[in-house]
Amino acid sequence: MSERDDTRARPSLGAAAGRGTLLGAMFLMATSAVGPGFITQTTEFTARLGAVFAFAILVSIAVDIAVQLNIWRVVGVSGERAQDLANRVVPGAGYLLAVLIVVGGLVFNIGNIGGTALGLDALAGLDVRIGGTVSAAIAIGIFLVRRAGVAIDRIIVVLGAAMIALTCYVAVVSRPPVGEAMRQAVLPEALGSDVFFATVTIIGGTVGGYITYAGAHRLIDSGTKGPENVGTITRASVTGVLLTGVMRVLLFLAVLGVVTGGTAVLDTANPPAAAFQSAAGEVGMRLFGVIMWTAGISSVIGASYTSISFVTSFSERLQRHRGWLVAGFITVSAVVYALVQQTPTTLLIFAGALNGLILPVGLGVMLWVAAFRGRDLLGGYRYPRWLLALGVLAWLLTVVISYRALSEIPALWQ
């Protein structure tokens, strides 16, 4: 059956619940990527590279789409979570992947809670430990309400839209050189090692670790799976990456406008806050607080939901207590954040390095399923060869990301 036939044959998703689930899956992936580390990363690279960072963003979006298309296609068509597919390819591989995802998600979640704390500090001057505890309690409450899946879909969409709208306002106020940024995106003046490093770093931060599986697992949990839904799965995967790209571009333009205006945002302890304050004064500082808290809480939700989705399929008992497992995951993250001596920035960098290690493992398994196990694991679905080729090229780049992640980890704790 062709992709066009699959698209035509899929069940109608015109109902409000269906649309809500699709939007939730797309925004879950996007907001999982757009966390505190994403904001800090984008700010620092923009301040360091200027308009040429637009080229790194454009390349990263293209690679992200190739990764997402393949992982979402394999997971969605098979109707099985990534860890279950991995176990069927190599017995025990799924357990290894689950451990990597959960450990990476836990470390990232600690940093995400730190990001919510920084956001409430900028917004209302709230002590960071109190702010982190309050934010963790809100996230736990979301997962424990009745029909948590529907609540997550709606809340994530609202949070994602709010981040985009507020960042767009700051991007307009800062008056960035849009024409120069567009030119550098396609004809960069300099392509040194710093641009390459920025590119592989933001790729790992966008589709590394648990992030790339967040929306895919949400879709199959809602019942949107199988060859008949391949068109819907494809659109959702690409749209999720594009939403992340929109946020990255808006944040880049907001900071670029500040940098070209002569403000050295890297000279402060909190570069993103300094950029927003320079662009819009005291209002900008408060907006930064809202954006950082929104990014943090949505990433806490995404990291927790996806990390636990990697263990619940191993036992029916675990599946029945999924909400409490998520609550426990967030609680542990909050307690460690309150006790740990490392700064949120260091934790986020360490988690990003772990995610860089996980990416080629999971993507490699998905590509193996696509190439050699389509008959039994994909229900006879004929996987497009062009898509498989794109996936292999993306996988080779993830190996480079993994190598860089390995070289970064020892230096983080010196």
UniProtKB/TrEMBL annotation:
The chain crosses the membrane at residues 21-39, 51-72, 93-111, 123-144, 156-175, 195-216, 237-266, 286-311, 323-340, 346-371, 383-406. It holds the Pfam family Nramp. GO terms for molecular function: cadmium ion transmembrane transporter activity; manganese ion transmembrane transporter activity. InterPro entries: NRAMP_fam. Its main location: membrane. It is found in: Membrane. GO terms for biological process: iron ion transmembrane transport. It is a multi-pass membrane protein. The keyword Cell membrane does not apply. GO terms for cellular component: plasma membrane. Keywords: Membrane, Transmembrane, Transmembrane helix. This is Divalent metal cation transporter. The lineage of its organism: Bacteria, Bacillati, Actinomycetota, Actinomycetes, Streptosporangiales.
